[in-house]
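Recall the central idea of this unit: under ordinary conditions, the amino acid sequence of a chain determines the structure it adopts. In this exercise we apply that idea directly, starting from the sequence alone.
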Amino acid sequence: MRKLLILFILSLPGVVSANIIGSDLQNFNPGASILDYVTVHSSKTLKPGQFSLGLTVNRATNTLPYFDSEGSENIETSRRYLNSITSADANIAVGVLENLHLTLAVPYLLDQEVRRSTDFYGSFEELGNTELRGGFKWAFLPLDYFGMALVGTVNYNRVKDNPYSGNEEWPAFSAELVGELDFGIISTAVNVGHRWRKSGISEAFDEENQPIEPFADQWIFSVGADLHIPATDWHILAESYGSYTEDDISSLSPRNSSVLEGVGAVRYQPWENFFAQVGFGREMKHAVSSADDRYFLGVYWSFGPFKRAKQVAPAPVIEQTPVAPAPKVAIIDLEDILFEFNSDVVRSDVEESKLIALREALSNKGTVQKIVIEGHACAIGTETYNLDLSERRADSLVEWVVQKFEFPREKVIPVGFGEQVPHESNISDENRRRNRRVRFAITYN
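Accordingly, the structure predicted from this sequence is:
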């Protein structure tokens, strides 16, 4: 039988959206940054000057295509172990502006094994880099528990004689809309997009034998969920991703041109800037580049942002004079009980039992010199938004203190800190809840 040396594995539309976005050689494309799910985009972006590095290795079985030949049944229908490929994906992302970061992915084919080579099949002729994939993410609606973003990607194919891409040198372009709900302990995201291609014709075959037609434009979609196991550093993730196209790329293959796959993973994240994950996936529809079984291992690390050191003028020499004793200051923290979600309106149903310490501290108004009300937020949402929300909440509490405790308005000072002074690391839902707090710093005469 005549062998068909092609590379294969489809690239479906999209860019990183649920995995269907890589070269036309691979469906599984790991997240572009430490903020993403396994393959699904989150709505969050890196801070300006923050970097994210990722490396994922995956092994997939029975992803290479076998084509019909006269007088014999297609071997893929037997569901036996026929082939496997092992690949690695290196990802780098950097925050450039508030709510905007850039990404670059470099997939690399490490190894392939073909057990059944007597049939008419497709494989890679050489190992190496299969494509370059650059992109951006813009979070245009970053809120505390809900976010939306736009993801754009460009894919430059580096595989020669790729029958799925054709003979055009034009890259493929993708755009995806991301929506995400994040409740701390559990979050979920949906990606929907389209991929535009200019494929031309395939030069991998002669004119009389064209078993594969290059891909046309495609719709891509994916959904993912992340469950954080309370009081631990462990997460459980589940995803499904796919693509749709009306065109049939091959009449000689049992593989569908529209893709649907599922993956699950366990993630260990002991620090906010690092995690390692391991997972398993498989096809939900027998399609181009889909795998009977897929195993993967990945690590992500982020660092920065870097800030320039400020030059500080030498402190002036001041003659020491007797200093009066420092005034006494009482600190009272109220954790996330005074406001509704994403609101600066003080709740009317706050339990009096939660205010006992504050009421006692203000019981002798004559000895109170001033009250500084500090608003603090967790790291969900953008830094700018969290700062504004904490300032508005501190302002609202001025009137609340004046009315509820009959305290002089001129002695109350509101200050918003946003996420700049966390009480705990923002790595868990419980820690984020503790960071969403109001602090009363009460100074006595």
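The longest helix spans residues 383-405.
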